């Protein structure tokens, strides 16, 4: 499992795609610092920066880039075959990839979110965002890993989930929030450190249970799909 | 010693039948999987390697099914046609990683041996994405061989190799076959198969057209006259005598000797020395001229 994680991490950071991970966190922290420097009241910038940029864009997009990068790229270019032709349980392969994806996503998103949370409210609020981001990183990574095995265009489908389902429908149709990881993150962070910045619309139990369902369900389904991984023949 | 078995295997994609009711058993040694492009060779290889479920029938290695059974990769090595390798690793890192994933006790030692086998030790510390096609191919073969699998499947293994590398790879496969490994390689270049293996499995349009030693397959094609090139001390006299022989269906006299068409391989080869002796003619050359794999293959395609 450690070798799979090693190859996965080397592959992730060896591709140019990894550079995409840098600008978003920098933008997030930069915006917060500018607002702080110009003494803009946190009640004015807190919500748009933390929720509008941090939780709605930085966390899911980072998870999308990383989650599809650790498996989707290998499926796409065929290098996955070198890992699959080993007597490893498919569970170990998926867990190694999930570990790398959620770890990198959590680090990339949680650190800037902590800084922004601390600047906007308090260190406690920063920690609450970190915990929410870690839960979100796990759920998003499981979802995007699964998408890498379900569709040949995981990035496109993932973007549709983030932008259309969570971004658009989540705003206008309240029922969609039950299937929105962004709402779970907001719900968890809001319950840990209530503030004026976050407005949790799903209860803590729903947020925790649903995050676990995304994580466990997505992982189990991905393990099953990887077990049936097929290579098309020349006549297909 | 491992045996790969296909029992009444079919595979279809929607309405297209890619593989149609194929049964074959691969024994230790080198076997060539032959067929024109699109015949279904890769589909068969993928089913053997556990990367495609048969729509019907069963594929097994030593009795264990290959589909959804990762434990077979302890005894199976695969060199797929697609060349993708983790280019950001060096050849050594890549082969060592494969050895570790095989859970070998000495991954570094096993990787060293595998890289020596394919003559890649000189470039083992270079990143794979700087390699030529042939070097990549050899690195992939080293990765597939690192755990010394009993069964090795190779899809078009000679693609991109120069003649010297081809020769070396052929020697390597030969020696593995001689040591009791079961090796199957697909190719559409008949010369390669002819040099490497007498045993062939010929697939034409998704069906197994022939199976076994191609020279024996040729002899079983009794509806086609066998063609021999004959040279003797008196070609014209020999031609006259041969035309009276029942098993001979035609004789041509050419500057380089006789071309004899025989309807029955066994009767002709027994009759010829007798006739020559009786006529007092000295035979200088007798060569079956259509026993090449190429002619066997073209006969099968026409059939």
From TrEMBL, chain A:
The keyword Membrane applies. The keyword Membrane applies. It comes from the Bacteria. Coiled coil: none annotated. GO terms for cellular component: plasma membrane. Keywords: Membrane, Transmembrane, Transmembrane helix. The chain crosses the membrane at residues 53-73, 94-119, 125-147, 154-173, 202-223. GO terms for molecular function: ABC-type transporter activity. This is ABC-2 type transport system permease protein. It comes from Paractinoplanes atraurantiacus.
From TrEMBL, chain B:
SMART domains: AAA. Residues 4-230 form the ABC transporter domain. Gene3D superfamilies: P-loop containing nucleotide triphosphate hydrolases. Keywords: ATP-binding, Nucleotide-binding, Transport. GO terms for molecular function: ATP binding; ATP hydrolysis activity. PROSITE patterns: ABC_TRANSPORTER_2. Pfam families: ABC_tran. Belongs to the ABC transporter superfamily. This is ABC-2 type transport system ATP-binding protein. The lineage of its organism: Bacteria, Bacillati, Actinomycetota, Actinomycetes, Micromonosporales.
């Amino acid at each position: 499992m450690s070798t799979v994680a090693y190859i996965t991490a080397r592959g992730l950071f060896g591709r140019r795609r990894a550079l995409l991970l840098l600008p978003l966190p920098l933008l997030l922290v930069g915006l917060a610092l500018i607002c702080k420097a110009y003494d803009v009241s946190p009640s004015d910038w807190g919500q748009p920066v933390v929720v509008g940029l941090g939780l709605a864009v930085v966390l899911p997009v980072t998870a999308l880039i990383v989650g599809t990068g650790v498996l989707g790229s290998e499926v796409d270019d065929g290098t996955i075959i070198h890992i699959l032709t080993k007597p490893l349980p498919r569970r170990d392969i998926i867990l190694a990839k999930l570990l790398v994806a959620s770890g990198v996503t959590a680090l990339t998103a949680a650190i800037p979110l902590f800084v922004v949370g601390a600047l906007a409210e308090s260190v406690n609020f920063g920690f609450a965002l970190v915990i929410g981001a870690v839960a979100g990183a796990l759920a998003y990574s499981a979802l995007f890993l699964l998408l890498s095995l379900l569709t040949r265009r995981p990035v496109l489908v993932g973007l549709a989930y983030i932008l259309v389902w969570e971004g658009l429908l989540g705003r206008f149709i309240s029922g969609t929030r039950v299937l929105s990881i962004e709402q779970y993150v907001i719900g968890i962070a809001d319950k840990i450190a209530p503030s004026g910045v976050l407005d949790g619309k799903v209860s803590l139990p729903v947020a925790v249970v649903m995050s676990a369902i995304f994580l466990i369900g997505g992982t189990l389904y991905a393990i099953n799909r990887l077990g049936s991984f097929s290579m098309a023949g020349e006549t297909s | 010693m491992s045996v790969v078995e296909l029992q009444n295997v079919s595979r279809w994609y929607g309405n297209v039948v890619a593989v149609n009711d194929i049964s074959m058993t691969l024994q230790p040694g080198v076997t060539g999987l032959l067929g024109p492009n699109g015949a279904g060779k890769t589909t068969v290889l993928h089913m053997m390697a556990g990367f495609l479920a048969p729509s019907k029938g069963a594929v097994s290695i030593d009795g264990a099914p290959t589909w959804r059974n990762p434990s077979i990769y302890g005894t199976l090595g695969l060199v797929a046609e697609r060349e993708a390798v983790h280019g950001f690793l060096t050849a050594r890192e890549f082969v060592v990683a494969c050895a570790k994933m095989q859970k070998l006790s000495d991954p570094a030692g096993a990787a060293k041996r595998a890289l020596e086998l394919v003559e890649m030790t000189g470039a083992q510390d270079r990143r794979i994405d700087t390699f030529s096609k042939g070097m990549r191919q050899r690195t992939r073969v080293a990765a597939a061989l690192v755990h010394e699998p009993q069964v090795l499947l190779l899809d078009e293994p000679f693609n991109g190799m120069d003649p010297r590398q081809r020769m070396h790879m052929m020697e390597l496969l030969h020696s593995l076959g001689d040591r009791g490994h079961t090796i199957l390689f697909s190719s559409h270049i008949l010369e390669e198969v002819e040099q490497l293996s007498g045993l062939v499995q010929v697939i034409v349009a998704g069906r197994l057209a022939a199976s076994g030693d191609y020279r024996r397959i040729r002899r079983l094609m009794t509806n086609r006259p066998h063609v021999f090139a004959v040279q003797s001390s008196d070609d014209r006299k020999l031609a006259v005598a041969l035309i009276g022989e029942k098993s001979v269906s035609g004789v041509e006299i050419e500057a380089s000797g006789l071309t004899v068409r025989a309807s029955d391989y066994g009767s002709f080869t027994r009759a010829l020395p007798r006739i020559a002796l009786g006529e007092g003619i000295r035979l200088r050359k007798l060569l079956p001229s259509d026993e090449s794999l190429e002619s066997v293959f073209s006969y099968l395609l026409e059939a």
